[in-house]
Design goal:
The protein has five helices and six strands; from the N terminus they run βαβαββαααββ. It is α/β, with parallel strands linked by helices. The chain is globular and about 50 Å long.
């Protein structure tokens, strides 16, 4: 059997819009990561960027299940002694709600240059407005049905 690799003219990239209001973070992030990788397409190839562009609005209205709103902590480390910082979920939601979704999706993408390239195709906005109306994004619900 011969493996077909899609050529650049076969790869068609579209724009999708997700409304994160009252959505569970993990379920939304897996759906976004699938579209960014292009795993929903018949010509998916793990070493190529065959995915689509994704816009997420209403990031400040994302939900978590269980007690995660009180217990979840985001950590980063500068590499220097005393350089570890811990930010609780509630503070992150107030200051940078976009980073919550970006962090969740980034963990579901490959840890290489392809993953970095895919992450650049994700646009997250805290409010209801986005500047990508000219691309005519398709609204996607979490059930997977496009409108």
């Amino acid at each position: 059997m011969k493996t077909d690799t899609p050529s650049p003219d076969q790869i068609h990239q579209e724009w999708y819009l997700f409304d994160a209001a009252d959505q569970v973070l993990g379920r939304l992030a897996t759906r976004i990561a699938t579209l960014l990788r292009g795993k929903n397409k018949p010509y998916f190839s793990p070493h190529l960027d065959t995915g689509d562009y994704v816009i997420v609005i209403n990031a400040e209205k994302i939900k978590l299940t269980g007690n995660k709103e009180l217990q979840k902590i985001y950590k980063r480390y500068s590499g220097y002694p005393g350089g570890q910082r811990e930010i609780p979920y509630q503070k992150m939601l107030e200051q940078k709600p976009e980073e919550i979704i970006i962090h969740a999706v980034k963990g579901m993408l490959p840890k290489n240059t392809l993953g970095n390239q895919l992450l650049q195709k994700l646009r997250v906005y805290a409010g209801n407005e986005h500047p990508h109306a000219a691309q005519k994004p398709q609204l996607v619900t979490l059930t997977g049905k496009e409108e």
